[in-house]
Amino acid sequence: MLEALHAALGQRVPAPAELLLHSDQGAQYTSSSYQQALSQAGMTCSMSRRGNCWDNAVAESFFSTLKTEWVYRTP
Length: 75
Hints:
By secondary structure, the chain is of the alpha+beta class. The chain has helices at about 1-10, 25-30, 30-40, 55-70; strands at about 20-25, 45.
């Protein structure tokens, strides 16, 4: 996860003044090393509530539609 975070940050040119990362409360996102990397990058961490699948419902619906209409239609 840290490699993905660093790769994503490296592609943000210029990096915006404020970045927000939203995730679930998985162990990889709550680990001290990941939280430290976010802090060092000046990012704010946002997490969905524990056990509440509705927090991400809108985003999940959007990405499902995007994949269905664009990704899966590509030969």
